[in-house]
Amino acid sequence: MYIKNKILKTGTILTLAVTLAAPMVSFAAGPKVKYTQPGVTVQSDAAFIKYVSVEDIKNSLKDKGPINVSFDIDDTLLFSSQYFQYGKTVLTPGKFDFLKDQKFWDYVALEGDSHSIPKLSTKEIIKMHMERGDNIFFITGRTRGSMYKEGYLDKTANNLKNYFNMQKVNPIDYTADTPREGFKYDKSYFIKKHNVAIHYGDSDDDVLAAKEVGVRPIRVFRAPNSTNMPLPQAGGYGEEVLRNSAF
Hints:
By secondary structure, the protein is an alpha/beta fold. It has helices at 54-60, 81-91, 102-111, 120-132, 155-163, 188-193, 204-212; strands at residues 50-52, 68-71, 78-79, 117-118, 135-140, 173-174, 198-201, 216-219, 240-242. It holds the Pfam family Acid_phosphat_B.
């Protein structure tokens, strides 16, 4: 969700932000759920957070054959705030109407995340899953570019393939922040459709979508300089949190 007031922070980014926060204002359609325990916005030594490393995840799967896993894109795989900053400052100055404008999403689709920055932390995760022979899916709340049909390998998919050194890539699933009938959260349908065992994401809706369909969620830290503010409370639903995943 992209809210109007960006929080300016001073001091170290390792300051612990712990709260039983009320639900955040969001453009996503899923119902907001209060956190069940304290969470953090940046990595800390808080004992109540279930931190996991890439090696921990790998070890938890050592007795399993190849599985299906899914990833959110924005702030999970890629730092892509520049596109949303452009929408907020150029397309609809001071407003967030651009998020509902197909022209904005067509612009993003044509750019294909050519100027986005892949996160090093998720590079390691994807490498581990590829070495295991796992099947990887990308599920995003973005709206599909009008020049592409469902199931087509668009420019963003091909750039993700290159960024993460993947031999093959599946077409991206676009939800347009809209849950399918029978589901509360926009990504739930696709997580279930692909028989996913682990879903990675930075947002509350990523965690709640996975939980809705009985899938293991792993939270990825959102970068503290993301335009997507406020930062969610990682671990706030008792989910596992990937260590060192803000960048």
